[in-house]
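Re-run with default settings, no changes from the original entry. Doing this only to confirm the output is reproducible before filing.
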Amino acid sequence: MFRSVPGWPAVLTDGPVLLRPYRRSDATAWSEVRRANERWLAPWESSPPGRWDELNSPVSFRYVYKDQRASARRGEAMPFAVCLREPGRPERLVGHLNLGNIVRRAFCSAYAGYWVDARAAGRGVMPTALALAVDHAFEHGGLHRIEVNIRPENRPSRRVVEKLGFREEGYHPRYMHIDGAWRDHLGYALTSEDVAADGGMLARWHRLRATAS
């Protein structure tokens, strides 16, 4: 039986964007999205040696799913499948968002990591997903701080956190081994106090989009 931990499991929604726990039946959809996005995703991800199509096969998903489920059971992560629900179309998996490396007690912090299908990029999917996850982490997950570390060259990912008002807090030389080398990263973060006056990050994001439209 799944032992619930603070904030998990959870299903979060805003408009067409849906965040939910992964299912075993996601294997084929996950593999299709990952394989179709090799050029879009591979430069930014740490991964074991091997061919992209093998590392992102339906069989490989079984191990990803098992590892994510175990981390969530221990209260160390909140892994979400990011899905779109659009009129006249079945729900489709378009990305991933994880609040990982969760540390509680006096720290109450997590690192956010995410990716989105290039075919769904530029539509506000990932900012909405991250805003949903951050609000949930603060309100129901018992967390106080969320950090995101991104390669300086990864402009699409940086735009997500910058739109949402994450602070750029530092430059981390040779922070993580990605795409064959130790890569520098920019560190972004915010705390629950940073979004409290706005009524949460999702409310802030909605106001920003309304102003821009």
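The first strand starts at residue 12 and ends at 14. The mean pLDDT is 94.
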